User: Which sequence fits this backbone?
């Protein structure tokens, strides 16, 4: 496999400036996120790691427009995020496929919801199926697929409307270790092919390092940014890179944040 540096376009696509999130409860306000300031460049792959309950998933929902920010400014392509965004695709931990619909029809749910021209949507779905290595499985039902294949279908569904941003909330957390490693390779390949901007929430430090251009480390709740690491490893990356001394150094540096807090997610 030929190694090369992945060039990220420097244009800022997602920008957060002093963004906070406070939930209102019967017991009073609960601070979920302290002021966050960072950006994600167009075409960049960024992962967020941190202790359970630190607000990682809340951050993703803010970027998706599924939750309102409390204070600060959050923009996508220079426009303020105010409500659900049409230009994002979301992949959750569960594939959330309809058991009575085959692979192709599960992907086309996106087209139905967005009122996309069905002929064009079908062509796009078949292209994504090919890109995801699912050729020959178009008519299979979810129960006929492995967990990893189901998640590939959910990635295809999230990409059907050609969004600028792909948001992923612990998408491989329910998979066994070997399948998860295979899916890391598949996601890297799909990302390099699709050239999308990706924000990945994960508890796995090796997964974050393997996939990312940058890794954002969050503190315990209320979440704040403890550090941001540039991952300067050549792409495409094989699993062998996990044995590289530089990979081990990144892992040690990131893991030290959680040891210092007395918490560690596996």
Assistant:
């Amino acid at each position: 496999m030929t190694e090369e540096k992945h060039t990220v376009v420097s244009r800022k696509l997602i920008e957060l400036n002093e963004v906070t999130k406070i939930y209102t409860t019967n017991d009073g306000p609960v601070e979920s996120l302290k002021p966050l300031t960072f950006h994600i460049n167009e075409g960049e792959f960024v992962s967020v790691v941190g202790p359970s309950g630190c607000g990682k998933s809340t951050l993703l929902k803010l970027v998706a427009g599924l939750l309102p920010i409390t204070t600060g400014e959050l923009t996508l392509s220079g426009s303020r995020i105010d409500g659900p965004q049409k230009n994002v695709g979301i992949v959750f931990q569960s594939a959330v496929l309809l058991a009575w619909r085959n692979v192709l029809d599960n992907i086309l749910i996106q087209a139905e919801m967005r009122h996309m021209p069905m002929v064009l949507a079908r062509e796009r779905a078949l292209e994504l199926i090919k890109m995801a290595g699912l050729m020959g499985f178009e008519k299979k039902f979810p129960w006929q697929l492995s967990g990893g294949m189901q998640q590939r279908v959910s990635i295809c569904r999230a990409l059907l409307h050609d969004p600028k941003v792909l948001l992923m909330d612990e998408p491989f957390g329910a998979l066994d270790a070997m399948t998860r490693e295979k899916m890391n390779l598949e996601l890297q390949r799909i990302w390099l092919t699709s050239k999308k901007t990706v924000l990945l929430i994960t508890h796995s430090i090796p997964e974050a390092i393997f996939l990312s251009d940058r890794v954002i480390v969050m503190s315990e709740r209320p979440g704040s940014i403890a550090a941001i690491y540039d991952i300067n490893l050549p792409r495409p990356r094989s699993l062998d890179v996990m044995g590289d001394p530089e990979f081990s150094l990144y892992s040690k540096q990131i893991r030290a944040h959680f040891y210092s807090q007395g918490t560690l997610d596996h």
Summary: The chain is about 35% helix and 25% strand. The first strand starts at residue 12 and ends at 25.
